[in-house]
Amino acid sequence: MKLSTKGKYGLYAMYYLAQHAGEGCQSLRNVAEIGVPEDYLEQLLGTLRRAGLVTTVRGAQGGYALAKAPQEITVGDIIDALEGPLSISDCVGDESRCHKAGQCPSRRVWEYLSRSINGLLQSISLQDMLNETSFDDMERTLTADDPT
Amino acid sequence: MKLSTKGKYGLYAMYYLAQHAGEGCQSLRNVAEIGVPEDYLEQLLGTLRRAGLVTTVRGAQGGYALAKAPQEITVGDIIDALEGPLSISDCVGDESRCHKAGQCPSRRVWEYLSRSINGLLQSISLQDMLNETSFDDMERTLTADDPT
DNA sequence: GTGAATGTTGACAAGATTAGTCGGGTATGA
DNA sequence: TCATACCCGACTAATCTTGTCAACATTCAC
Known about the structure:
The structure is a homodimer. The first copy, chain A, is mainly alpha-helical. Chain A is built from 7 helices and 2 strands, in the order H-H-H-E-E-H-H-H-H. In chain A, a hairpin with a 5-residue loop joins strand 1 (about 55) and strand 2. The longest helix of chain A has 18 residues, at about 105-120. In chain A, about 35% of the residues are buried. The interface between A and B is large, with 40 and 40 residues. Chain A binds a DNA duplex through helix 3.
């Protein structure tokens, strides 16, 4: 169970744009400084544009910029756009795939996990990543739940 | 971001064994009633055996059984065994892969997510799946956090 | 002891997915 | 009009998934 590089690179790119928000748009070449092949990054940014997360300006001096404020874009938005919606198991969200949907306890596990993980992803915004202290807060709530 | 069928089938199989705990061991053919090809299931049960989650008896009247009580086996144990440890990004857990480990905010996101998801997976035991009411409790804590 | 039932192991392979690469567009500013 | 950029679809090598298969080892019933 792992994330592909799409989600990872996409978050790097969006964080880069968040850091340079207010400086006008950034060319693909600039964004690629994060260490991602330009040709590949172009695909990812295209997907993010179609998902409404970045805006683009074509032509000379063109480039990419965040479509919304950093606090309005979450890690979940980015992962969703690039990797498709989190789908632990096909049967979640598509009842027809499960012949005994009502009684299947595994299904309830998948549903619970999907909702929990989506909630986690949606709870972290780009702004949180810019504010380092947000992480310390998250760590505290996490370790408070789990006394080990 | 999805689970492969290994984790899904593995959980089905372990749940089947939990339901039949106390009835002696179950042959591969019996377990395959959950709807998984026998030859493939055999591989998965072999992996679960090497992970110490099931015990086997060879020969005629042999079969598979849980190695521990249902409350001592978690969904996380099963997923870990079959899909390898949750690895959101390579750089989590292997500092050498990240050239700027200390300052990377994405890394902090991955670490936070990994720990949270692992905690979730470890919090659900096979016994919880047998007790239907456990799910209602989980739903309550989940919806309490998220008022939508 | 023999044979049937059952678990064990490793090799193999078709298909899907990932992670890019490439080549040609199209829009814009100087 | 030309250089700079973004846009888009096709292509590919490598890897992973999802099995299938064949040969073998162990045990029980007779």
